[in-house]
Amino acid sequence: MYFYGTTGVNNKGHLEIGGVDSVELAQEYGTPLYVYDVALMRERAKGFKEAFEQLQVNAQVAYASKAFSTIAMLQLVEEEGLSLDVVSGGELYTAIKAGFPTERIHFHGNNKSREELEMALDNRIGCIVVDNFYELALLKTICSEKDTKVNILLRITPGIEAHTHDYILTGQEDSKFGFDLQNGQAEKALLTALQCPHFEVLGLHCHIGSQIFETTGFLLAAKKIVEKMEAWKTAHSFEAKVLNLGGGFGIRYTKEDEPILPSQYVTEIIKEVKNLTEQYSLDMPEIWIEPGRSLVGDAGITLYQVGSSKEVPGVRKYLAVDGGMSDNIRPALYQAKYEAVLANKPLAKSNETVSIAGKCCESGDMLIWDLPLPETGEDDVLAVFCTGAYGYSMSNNYNRLPRPAVVFVENGDARLVVKRETYEDLIRLDLPLK
């Protein structure tokens, strides 16, 4: 069994997270339950920041809040001195309510509405990452109406394909995101932006994918972009102050995954950008990155109560839990793989193989296929590892299932940071026919 962060086994033989008994957490807060190891999230944040500090490079590490966004999480991010990446009005609103310093907020998204852009400008956020010509024109109009100026980055697609799942590729030419670097769109966008007195064009942004275990893609993207930066300095007297190379740093979900340390990503990226800028006689830009999954993914565990079972002789045994695709849609959406143990007996010897089924009325609601477990009954609690990213943030009310609660654990203390939804919450916005 692979233990993450502060996870271990206590003297009761139960799975422990942050010094707190997971079985007791399930009893107190109910299941399904998202549990976050705060110490591990702090460690991950410090790891990225310290890597830049040791290399003495100006940088911003912006947490990609789409991975997991709640008021408590964003307050923790602020405590660790990170910046923040938001992609919607809802994420921006959450950040504002969390008291996050707006000057450290970067606003992404391929279809920002007028209302969202106005909210960003009214709250004087640090930077807007402009994604397309429509947004460029809309933002210019709004800034003119408000007689204000805003910092922007231009999101570009450098034509680099990351070795990852097809659904989460974002840096290749055929992408819904950004201005293409190869066909002249990026240069046209730059010239348009430079001509607008309401824009301060800080630099360029790219994002090549997610769950990446090597630095090759980042280095190739940096090379393409810096080469273009040199051409634009010569042709247009533009020199980027900021180069944002996005996120996508991978984590370990199963033994098949082999992630590298945050410091290795940072060190190799910085080395490449330094070499390239020196080669092309450019000033070293400030480097921004956007870790999301790599900060919270392996810090999260979901606890489930075991329920019904079904055995198909000679085929497989199904074991159902009280959650599923409503609290973790990634297995259904991406065929994502996870590891799990019984929280009340994590060290017990496995003597059967089961497939973990969710309770949603969908045949595709399967969390884990062919999981080795000890003999399991209805009193057992299943702990699924590495659900900290895109679990809560992609949770839903399919089959009218209430969303789970979220608990932060640290140094033996547990803190409820998101209440469990109730049935009343489910109908709160419903209106009667008459």
Automatic annotation (TrEMBL):
Reactions catalysed according to its record: meso-2,6-diaminopimelate + H(+) = L-lysine + CO2
Q: Which gene encodes it?
A: lysA
List the Gene3D superfamilies hit by this protein, alphabetically. Alanine racemase, Lyase, Ornithine Decarboxylase, Chain A, domain 1
Question: Which residues get modified to N6-(pyridoxal phosphate)lysine?
Answer: K66
Which keywords belong to this entry? Amino-acid biosynthesis, Decarboxylase, Lyase, Lysine biosynthesis, Pyridoxal phosphate
- Catalytic EC class: lyase
Q: What is its EC number?
A: 4.1.1.20
Instruction: Tell me the residue numbers annotated for binding substrate.
Output: R293, R330, Y334, E362, Y390
The yes or no answer to whether the keyword Lyase is present is yes
List, alphabetically, the InterPro entries matched: Ala_racemase/Decarboxylase_C, DAP_deCOOHase_LysA, De-COase2_C, De-COase2_N, De-COase2_pyr-phos_BS, Orn/DAP/Arg_de-COase, PLP-binding_barrel
Q: In which pathway does it act?
A: Amino-acid biosynthesis; L-lysine biosynthesis via DAP pathway; L-lysine from DL-2,6-diaminopimelate: step 1/1
Kindly list the positions annotated as binding pyridoxal 5'-phosphate: G248, E290, P291, G292, R293, Y390
Q: Ranges for the Orn/DAP/Arg decarboxylase 2 C-terminal domain? A: 33-388
| Stretches assigned to the Orn/DAP/Arg decarboxylase 2 N-terminal domain | 41-296
Q: CDD domains, alphabetically?
A: PLPDE_III_DapDC
Q: What is this protein called?
A: Diaminopimelate decarboxylase
Q: Which organism is this protein's natural source? A: Neobacillus ginsengisoli
| Complex and partners | Homodimer.
User: Is Lyase among this UniProt entry's keywords?
Assistant: yes
Molecular function (GO) terms for this protein are:
diaminopimelate decarboxylase activity
Family statement drawn from the similarity comment of this UniProt entry: Belongs to the Orn/Lys/Arg decarboxylase class-II family. LysA subfamily.
Q: Enumerate the transmembrane spans.
A: none
Q: Which HAMAP family match?
A: LysA
According to its UniProt entry, the function of this protein is described as: Specifically catalyzes the decarboxylation of meso-diaminopimelate (meso-DAP) to L-lysine.
